Amino acid sequence: MRTYYDTEWGMPVRDEQGLFERICLEGFQAGLSWSTILRKRPAFRLAFSNFDPPAVADFTDDDVARLMDDRTIVRNRPKILACIGNAKATLALRSEGGLSSFVWGYQPDNTPSPRTIADLATTSAESTALAKALRKKGFAFVGPTTMHALMEATGIIDTHLLGSHRRGSSGVWPS
Hints:
The protein is mostly helical. Helices cover 53% and strands 0% of the residues. Helix 2 (16-29) crosses helix 3 (34-47), helix 2 (16-29) runs antiparallel to helix 6 (77-93) and helix 2 crosses helix 9. The longest helix has 17 residues, at 77-93. The protein is globular.
């Protein structure tokens, strides 16, 4: 977890495949711990064709059955189906500028400035709006809390505590 936090969490993710992977993994995380998902991430990448949206969009019922039998990932049919559906929705967004442009379009004008853990929010107006907009585009498992976590993880907002050695490290927001 420390390596993930120190090197990856909060760093900008602007490519379609990277954002698609994060949306899927955040959806799989719902109701579970992030450490569980992070530990299983290599298996998820293998099972979901490295989160290549066109490949995942082509998954069939046989692929769903294969995934439901895969003990190395989270075997939850609604979450598996959501990932496949989200791949199709990602492809549809290409005609509107793409997933990255869409998601980053919800970046707020200002980022939170938490001084303590108690100051950290789990949702925001932007994450609520992003969740609603993604659902309208056909995405699933993209609630406001999940999208807030996505925004934190991908650098759209910087919720590192003021004074943290990581605050501002994304280059998106000043420290």
